[in-house]
Design a protein that fits this description.
Strand content: 5-15%
Shape: elongated
Radius of gyration: 19 Å
Helix content: 25-40%
Number of strands: 2
Largest sheet: 2 strands, antiparallel
Structural class: mainly alpha
Strand order of the largest sheet: 1-2
Order of helices and strands: HEHEH
Distance between the termini: 41 Å
């Protein structure tokens, strides 16, 4: 993991039928792995933008002074966090 899939209901159970795909991926690095040794840690649900894109919302859109929300950002967007931070500062004139 981690892994992601689209869901249409809130359900935090872990689907064990996906174990084989995890074992296969891990065995590329640990060829002697016994798949029976793997245990699911947890499952979570995160929001995603309906149009598949991410959104930067500032005080004007949310009606709260100083509030900035970044929504629907999946990886690899999160790996660009410094670039996103620059965009937030530029767009919302934070720190000026």
């Amino acid at each position: 993991g981690p892994d992601a899939e689209v869901v249409d209901r809130i359900d935090y159970s872990v689907d064990d039928s996906r174990r084989a795909s995890f074992v296969a991926a891990i065995r590329r690095y640990l060829p002697d792995l016994d798949g029976a040794d793997l245990q699911p840690a947890y499952a979570g649900i995160r929001t995603s933008a309906a149009d598949g894109d991410f959104h930067l919302l500032g005080p004007a859109e949310q009606g709260v002074e100083g509030l900035v929300s970044l929504l629907g950002i999946d990886s690899p967007g999160l790996t660009a966090c410094l670039t996103l931070a620059d965009k937030v500062v530029q767009r919302f004139a934070l720190g000026s």
